[in-house]
Amino acid sequence: MTIKLDRQLIFLMKPHNLLNWIFALMLLGACQNSSIETKIKKTAFENKITQDKIVEGSNIEYAQNFDIQYFEHYKLLTVRNSARKSGDSLQYILLEKNAPKPKGFQEHQIIRTPVQGVICLSATQISIIDELEKVETIIGVSDKNYVMNPKVQQQLQTGKTLEFGQENTLNEELILSTKPDVILMSSGVENSLPILEKMQKTGVKILINADWLETTPLGRAEWLKLYGILYNIEKKANLKFSRIEKNYKQLKYKIGNISRPTVITNVPYKGTWYMAGGKSYVAHFLADAGANYVGRENTEIGSIPTDFETIYKMGLDADFWINLGTIESKEMLLNQDKRLADFKAFQQNNLYNYTARLDKNKLNEYFANSIINPDKVLADLIAIFHPHILPNHQFYYYKKLN
After folding, report:
1. What are the boundaries of each domain within the chain?
2. Does the domain made of 3-247 have the CATH classification 3.40.30.10?
3. Average pLDDT in the chain
């Protein structure tokens, strides 16, 4: 795995342990960062309890890390970190443009809707906004070299979308001059916090995203609803999610009571093998696709650093091997470690990777938009493990390694 891939996924994010982050991305697991919530609190984000009357409850069914409540004149958005069993949460008030501010909330917590100028610091954010047909509202990204979306690429060429810099070198003056309605930032940021804290004091609104900490594929996809609320198009977002949910469940129900092959994921790096936690959304994908993940008994959510010998014992006889990072051939795999040829999945040519949709710069569409296509991921996995269930399936994200 390369830093290039890391920057593609999270244009500016640089977490506390970069190596853990890189391999968490390879696993599609949620790597952990123990300091971010404390640092965010220091930027003056605060929890508030409103005494106003709730007029409508939440319709969030799968996502654990955000919730929405409807009040008479505003919406209360709570972003939490339940994936790490943390009570920490951030609250935002979403107000129509001219609606009065409710009491008890600070200015930095107020986001006026519908948003019309958004800065995206993650490729997944761009994909969700594109799904809602609101790409024209994206006025900024952190690094244009890691943008795959063709519409945003076109906007970058015409100057409608601007580049704001990399990692902790964001162009503050440019950001302030564009007056964005909100900057979308994933939890897991560390080095960029001083800059973001400074911008917040000037009135720039920063909405923390925790979609990457969700534990289920549908939980990740349900963040569509949050974006729908930002654009005041909840009905459209709900309909799109319902379609995804329906497709996913229909595929899942095809499995039934069936013999389940065993599966290992990821590849070792310098003697360490980062395996997906048994409660991660990777493990949920595999279970829903009718496979037994070798690490399913683990209770962790994030990636787990494991020594080579442990995985060698656990996965030597596994039937399939998937999610091999940037590996594109069996030869590339053996260049990392000759012992990998001992694995049953290697010997039986049952190696599949999510590298079917790479662009000319080796940017991977899987990392950019699989968050809104969990049904396509699941279909690929079912076709890998149980080809007779989907005999005419055309792979979308995955391909077999030769």
Report:
1. 3-247, 251-400
2. no
3. 84
